[in-house]
Write a structure and sequence with these properties.
This protein has 17 helices and 15 strands. It is of the alpha/beta class. The strands form four sheets. It has a five-stranded mixed sheet with strand order 2-1-3-13-6. A hairpin with a 2-residue loop joins strand 4 and strand 5. Bound molecules: beta-D-galactopyranose.
Length: about 425
Amino acid sequence: MWQGRLVIASLLLVSLLAGLSMCTIGNARQDQLEVYSWWTGPGEEEGLNAMAEAFENANPGVRFVNAAVSGGAGSNAKAILASRLLANDPPDSYQRHAGLELLDDVRSGKVTDVTALYDEQKWRAVFPQGLLEDLTIDGKIYAVPVNIHRANLIWYSPKMLKDLGLAGPPKSWSDFLAQAELIKRAGKMPIAVGPGWTQKHLMETVLLGELGADKYELLFAGRLNWTSVEVTAALAVFDKVLKVSDVDSASGDWQPQLDRVVQGSAVYAVMGDWTSNYLENTKKLGWRTGYQVAASPGSDGVYDFLSDSFTLPTGARRPDLSRKWLVECGSAEGQNLFNPLKGSIPARTDADANIYTGYLAWALQQWRDPKTRIVGSLAHGVVANNAYSAEIDSALGLFIQNRDVARFAQTVQAKYRETQ
Ligand code: GAL
């Protein structure tokens, strides 16, 4: 009899302990914020790490789980995120670009409307109107921007240009092609490129430089055909630029692409301004002394922008913590902490300009100059929805192999119609 009672008592004790430990596990899982991005490695992660530390300090007992997946421009992260969202296993917040990249998530109900947070934080008064429009779908706002990056930039070493006898960076793509002849004769690679997304980034800047801002916008608004005379002429220039690049041997991501410029085997690279953090903090090069940067050929006065933003996913485990994270992303303190380390400028219009020095001071001045023309980036989510963007990626992959301008233009034009 007593043995039976002992067995029951032991069973009760075991299940009580199991219950207790489940609770502990449950709480441990709950007291954490999982933030998903593609910011890993040098030149990418410094700003996020600073924000993570600030988040933990402001929320004692809550662990910041950095769920970043490496690969520039989200080249790997976006695919893995898609499968997590499909499986209803979202992180507590994930990175998206402002613009059409957000559309699918909104339409498929993967992200929550954060308009009320905007009202509570009075954010509508501190973010630029155009950016707010890029974050708004059907009258509701779906993400919080932490920064502004510029895509249309060409990076180089001032010493290299001097050694080659070049007076300055190319002002147009035909100027670049003329310089490329001289550079090749000197045994150097005129322009370095990296993986597929960097080739798309380069194409975007060639289109911008050759077409000008108005026609660039018309093209992505579907009001100028890819098969038109001017766009095919611009694509032919892109083809010529690729011919004087290392596209056939390019390996690694954007950092190795820039390394070739730093080491001096290549002269130029087109890349966004996350490069400034990499060159200054990882490579220890000074702006204008160790490295220099200019608007990509033909795009002076234009700011081809993108904005890293964070979302509140539907089904996030701790939406209260997600909201706290979003508040940090949108706050002046958060943006002041993040941007000088990320190599970007604040999305907020009221942020303190004095903490931006060197290249970033120049970027901020250009962004705030009312004469600057702002357009949105293709490679970084602003002007193309995900389906159209993916079709451009496939067509571009084929174009890199066959270099058939007419076929590329026809394919992209047809895919535009299918994906709207
Ligand atoms: C962009 C992103 C930047 C930077 C870059 C390189 O898409 O907006 O913040 O991380 O990719 O990975």
